[in-house]
Design goal:
Strand content: 25-35%
Order of helices and strands: EHHEEEE
Structural class: alpha+beta
Distance between the termini: 42 Å
Radius of gyration: 13 Å
Number of strands: 5
Number of domains: 1
CATH superfamily: RelE-like
CATH class: Alpha Beta
CATH topology: YaeB-like fold
Helix content: 25-40%
Strand order of the largest sheet: 1-5-4-3-2
CATH architecture: 2-Layer Sandwich
Number of helices: 2
């Protein structure tokens, strides 16, 4: 019997980020997050140089968009979603 997918949780800011996206892009990102929740062993990059409050933050590429999140054994906690040219500007 396969393990159940991880729960996907959004911070309020991440939920706003997704709502502001074009619906086609938002659906693509949501579908990728569902897939990631079913395959948490997927290799993702850890962000370095982040403030202590963001320790352990990971990034997942979806085309030109990035999803910044934390991963534990029960959930993907989505911190931010945005275009690669903008996503890192205000998180430090």
């Amino acid at each position: 019997m396969p393990d159940a997918p991880l729960k996907i949780e959004f911070t309020p800011r991440a939920a706003d980020d997704v709502e502001r996206l074009d619906p086609v892009v938002a659906n693509r990102i949501i579908n990728k997050l569902v897939w990631l929740s079913e395959h948490p062993e997927t290799k993702v990059e850890r962000l370095v140089g982040m403030p202590a409050r963001l320790d352990g933050l990971l990034k997942y590429r979806v085309g030109v968009y990035r999803v910044l999140f934390w991963l534990d054994d029960k959930a993907l906690v989505i911190y931010r979603v945005g275009h690669r040219s903008e996503i890192y500007k205000d998180i430090k």
